Amino acid sequence: MKYGLYPGCSLNGTGIEYGLSTKAVAQKLGIDFVEIPDWNCCGASSAHNRNHLLSVALPARNLALAEQHGIDQIAVPCAACYQRMKAAEVALRDEATRQEVGEVIEMNVEGKSRTRALVEVFANDLDADFLSSVVVRPLSGLKVASYYGCLLVKPAQVAIDSPENPMIMDKLMAALGATPVEWSYKTECCGGSLAITRPEASLGMTANVLKYAKLAGADCIVTPCPLCTSNLDMRQKAAEGLLGMELGLPIYYFTELMGVALGLEMSQLGLTKHFVEATSLLKNSPAAQ
């Protein structure tokens, strides 16, 4: 299978483990990701707060580049990047908008390339029987809280699944042998975008997500969003202090857990780069015995 790839700003930086695990899992599964040449920042999250035309033009240029290179589907790992790219795709359905944006970016753009969240590609495009056949280390006994955050399922025009109770990642985790837990915070905002401007409010939101995952009986949280992952991982100690309770919840990218189930080395997947120690839980799980 072949897809275009829009890596965004995080896969080689704050979300380096996401980039490493995505590359390793794709190679293992025979998925060909072709990086969009000369891609630019999607504008998240500052552009759409400042100028509507700019917020469409920035991601639209990436869509135009994809069209030029014959890329029909673009896999986007970052939830924020996905939302901006998908929103631009929707906006470009309007002819007047296409013409205005085309003038700004000095490129022809039709908006024909389809924007896909990376989790959609792995969860929806892979045959369930095929996925089961390549799992060599089922995640048996691992209780996982699938955390989607707020950017992949809202608003409705860009949602990859139900905005209230998405199940796409839960089903993927179940296919890997893990046990998804039921909890009510899977689409609540973690407050990552407020970490600098309103740190106290942000920490409270972060703490709530972590607390309710813990109370639901989860051993860990799995997410497809670099911002959510960084926030829940890096600020977990502060959240423990605010809550007055120990959490100890590793925060995994779904691609990391896929890689473990496929038998890949943890260091190859970036699992040694987490703030909350992330390898012991997997080494000590029934699947590792």
Automatic annotation (TrEMBL):
Residues 4-85, 144-233 form the Cysteine-rich domain. It holds the Pfam family CCG. GO terms for molecular function: oxidoreductase activity. Coiled coil: none annotated. The keyword Oxidoreductase applies. Keywords: Oxidoreductase. Gene3D superfamilies: 1.20.1050.140. InterPro entries: Cys_rich_dom, HdrB/HdrD_reductase. PANTHER family: COB--COM HETERODISULFIDE REDUCTASE SUBUNIT B 1 (PTHR42947:SF1). This is Heterodisulfide reductase subunit B. The lineage of its organism: Bacteria, Bacillati, Bacillota, Clostridia, Eubacteriales.
